[in-house]
Amino acid sequence: MKKSSCGTTLVLLLVVLCLSCQTDDQIYPNAIAPSNKLAMLGRWSIAKIAYKVCRKNSCNTTNYSGAAKDYFEFRADSAFLNYTTDSNRQFDAFKADYSSPEAIVLTRGFWSAKYIVKENQPGKLVLECVYMGKDPYATFTDTYYLYQ
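Structure tokens predicted for Lipocalin-like domain-containing protein:
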């Protein structure tokens, strides 16, 4: 009898200690809440795209300032990117997956990229994509600054 009440007391003590350590902090601080995912849907104008290349502890960044007709459009299951490069219009269509807690995964054919949501404010959205290219010593980071 004494053994079981001691065990029960120990279990209750552990439960109380575990609950007292609980905080209200989110596991993913930039997590996309379902309501924010809905707010992300629609057409976003491109303010700027920052292209950063890092090789052997040396980084270079070039910026593209968005033109009037440049946009990123997010729909429930797809996304479209339309922008100008060297006087040519570039249009890309993707399959969009919003199931990750702090990112959007865009896929086109065999290509796939994870866009981390760095900022999600009303009227402002910042997405960052980090990837490796053909150069094994280089890391590429594309940061999209979008507004509505």
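Residues 2-20 form the longest helix (19 residues).
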